[in-house]
Fold:
Amino acid sequence: MIFLYCTGTFLTLTRHDWLTWGFARNVTFNFFGFSMVVYGYRAVRLYRSATELGPTRLDYALSALLFVSMLALSAVALWKDTPMRVFAAMGLLLCVLEVRELRWGFKPREVLLRRHIRYMLASYFYMLTVVSIVHLGDELPGRMRWLWPTILGAFIIYFAGAKTPSVSAPGPFLRWAVGATLVIGLSLGAYVMFDLWSGANLSMQTFSR
Structure:
């Protein structure tokens, strides 16, 4: 994820005019997707803590970061583009869940587990979105290659998070969600490798369309 984010950000900074809508879209979308890793890692650190801790200043700061990134997405989406409007709506939903869980004080403890599952899977499907944008330019129309990982990811995240009682008893939904996520990721990866092996010409400009 760090490698993907850094290389994507480098390409955005070096191959786009900074005073364009495409530049703003790429910066806000990439930051929003990558930030999910930070929220998910923080959740599991709290979950594994030996002491019963509620939200700290760090957690409120990270929540503020989520709100800011959602507002940045929304500002870009107001201008144009259906995929960005979908991502902004997803960001708004995450903010609603964030407010609710902060008010609960991250209790019961399983709330932290569900947060970890939600954000780590969201970051993974962000990664699949980037791969789809770059490598499926000839196979899928523009909107579809931006949105299909989000559509699948939303269902998987819902069932994985809402139906997981605890780590000791994860239940079938979490195992199904992890299995489905791996199958989707491996299938896309295998297709990309085949595409590259067969001599497909890739253009990073697909990310700007």
The chain has a mean pLDDT of 85. Residues 2-208 form one domain.
